[in-house]
Write a sequence for this structure.
């Protein structure tokens, strides 16, 4: 049986690539999905496709909704949602995805440094595993599929 | 008909009191609920009730889960979830609540300064109203009930 | 047992009042709810409460979303959704409400003249009763409660 | 991953063909579905298959229900429902489909001229994108799949 | 806590009255609901309220749908659905109600003579109790509430 | 897209074969499923597999539950449930399946002679098509797939 | 707001009374519900109400199903399910209730001695709090309601 | 059509292998899934992958949650959940799985000796078949697929 995994959160480090490489190295039967991780493309998609907005709020609004089409589908079809929080930025969309996934009964794995433990306690409380490295995420996938 | 409203997010300003006062001043048929807003009590409830933990992670974990009992019930029974984001702190639990409420089909109202617009675009995209002041939240409740 | 009834659709005739009068005349245990039926208030609520928009699209967008807070709650809590279509206007929101109510498994009663039969065939196909007068709606409520 | 898209609404213009061509030109992994778009076949299917009705209402009723078998399946299995409104006709079935899809949590894209903005504000408020051309719909599919 | 009980099925014997009397004699906190049990009123409601049909099929169709408004509400709000099958008539509507209630996860109690055991085996297999007398139904309610 | 169709009801005539032949003759993309239609095997499966019961009620009970494993799966995975009622026997299981399918939101097609119209009015009221011949069922499948 | 709490599990100690007393002493707005805790009545209800069975399996089967009517209702209406495991007996019904409640998204509190930690790890993993004394359960209710 | 079957419970006997062999011998279209049945691996997965815990409770907690990722997925995708109880150990996780599966509407088959009948009466009451040997489970799969 195949696991479908959605990788939500931080887009400024290579954690997705590391999970991808680990999954491939072990030959795991895992399908990985991500949001649009090109920051500029993600911010500008509304204006580019549907026409420019004069106000920042509506530019963001249109973009966020178009991005939601992909995100919702991938979360809805996932078995596991991995949510990564980095040191920088607010990353409220990652926490939003985690809450959304939790309400749908998805298995959640969080991925963050120990320094964020206190700030993320509510999100971690809804997770089935709290990882600090992409390798740990891969190990959990490997264990869940092949033990 | 009565509206049940859950007030999620920031605990270091008086926005809940302002909404409460506005609701009372207008005599709105609204039931307001909040999480435990006493920061220390919220952080320590696990250790206090169930026994002290030696590791910070598990102290937080136990506390967050106990707090989830109240939060889940109030969100599940709400018609509207108001989510407040302030300038300080990560407030990932507020974004988590918003995602959770969105997946349950609750009506979401966000409340934050314009400065946070870009960082909150995904949360705002799931909201039915984006407010900047508690008075606007009260106006929406008033309009929805009494117009 | 009480029936909760949501009255969706046309706002330019007195069909809601007639149902209200019929329900009162017969002393039926029925709770009637409606959207905001003041056309101007409904159109302007976004601008008035949250600030004016320069573009018509966003003005409408903000207003429609605020109105959705009330509509969603009332439909979600209704046993019956009565959807009225008049001769004039597109009334796509009424058909939207009907589809929304159908997917939630609500009992739908449509109310329209015979002249609209062909154009409304898909909506009528999802209804448990197709009425031509408010009195017929009242008769169905009376029959369902008191026979 | 493949996107399943249901194309609801107007049957008197070539918007479906344009989306089909755009999807093929870009080689998108998209499965497009439509209702029966042959107007006469759609109107007459009840009488033809199950026997003629003497009254127009019941002829329409039987046809609309048979058509619902296909429509319901396609909407239920879709990731995205595109709803097209043209200048002519009431198109209440399109708005009904939009409401139905909204209650099921489907991603909705509307497609209509700016002139219809005010009349469609409630439907647009439930959409994740409001397009004016079939090309924009194709762009959104392309962006969601391939960015 | 109160039990809401819907009494589906046979309308030509006094089993509903016996359950009602038993519930009152024991002072049980039970709310009993029934479909329209006046056979003629039930058959004619469509024609009477919405206008006469020339074809028997459509007369029945309109009546059955109006009756469904009440039946659906009562089943949806019930904790327990009691389904009574007598010796005579097809009573397919009772079996339909049982299947409908089963899919909604309601507790089902069947009530029928031993002679019908084989014919009702699929319905009984979905029931939590199979009774032969109204007194047994009352005993189960009494036990569930007061033991 | 493929339609999955569950054929519930009468097991003493060749209506299933006729639908099967029609589907094959037209090359329809339809997957047909049925309950165990060998009457004796269906009645005896509990005793045969799990051991003989001394009481008829429990023999029937065990058999009906084992049969439910297959029936539930097929109904749950179906797009369409065709329910056939013949002249003979009570066929309460067919009506039960119809109610069960209705509550799950499946598209229901009934198949019966005109003589049964009045007795089946509640079941027909939940159907999207009421057929008198297997050929009509095939026509509806053909129309829904290929028009 | 009131909390509804279902107390599942062990019937041979006074933990329910202690929670009841604690709730009363603190004047908490809590509604407590339990299964039938009279062991003999619970075991014999099937035979007593519906007639004696000659085989132990069916006697148990009938009793367990009648008891399920009450249990299902109370769990379905609860905000919190407290599941108590004692030293003796298998108590598989308590673990079954916990799994049932978990799938419904109820908040679960387990109550057991430390000695059972390893054997109950899967149940505890689904709980929001793991208590060792009834007083701790009361404290959690008090905290959730009144902090 | 293929049946997906999850095999929950006892890990110290060869019942899973016997079902596997029976399924292969008969060439059944059945997909069998199990939890991690290596006791040590299952107990230690949390410590091994995410780091050692000093307290037994948290070691168990982390392991149980990681194991839940696999268990939840397999139960959610199963048509049938077979739950095996042996003579030894508490096996509360098996009963928890049964309750969880019951609330999701899965078909449950229990597998245990007659000696456990009384202790398992609530679990058996939620099952569609109660087996004493793996061969009986295979027979039911064979019957459900091929009769």
């Amino acid at each position: 049986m195949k696991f479908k995994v959605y990788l939500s959160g931080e887009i400024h480090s290579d954690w997705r690539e590391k999970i991808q490489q680990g999954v491939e190295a072990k030959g795991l039967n895992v399908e990985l999905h991500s949001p649009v991780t090109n920051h500029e493309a993600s911010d500008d998609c509304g204006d580019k496709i549907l026409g420019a907005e004069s106000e920042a709020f509506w530019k963001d609004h249109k973009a966020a909704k178009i991005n939601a089409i992909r995100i919702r589908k991938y979360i809805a079809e996932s078995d596991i949602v991995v949510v990564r929080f980095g040191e920088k930025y607010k990353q409220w969309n990652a926490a939003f995805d985690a809450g959304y996934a939790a309400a749908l009964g998805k298995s959640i794995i969080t991925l963050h440094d120990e320094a964020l433990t206190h700030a993320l306690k509510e999100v971690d409380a809804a997770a089935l595993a709290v990882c600090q490295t992409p390798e740990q995420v891969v190990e959990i996938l490997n264990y869940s599929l092949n033990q």
Notes: The mean pLDDT of chain H is 97. The helical segments of chain H are 15-26, 39-50, 56-77, 92-103, 121-125, 134-146.
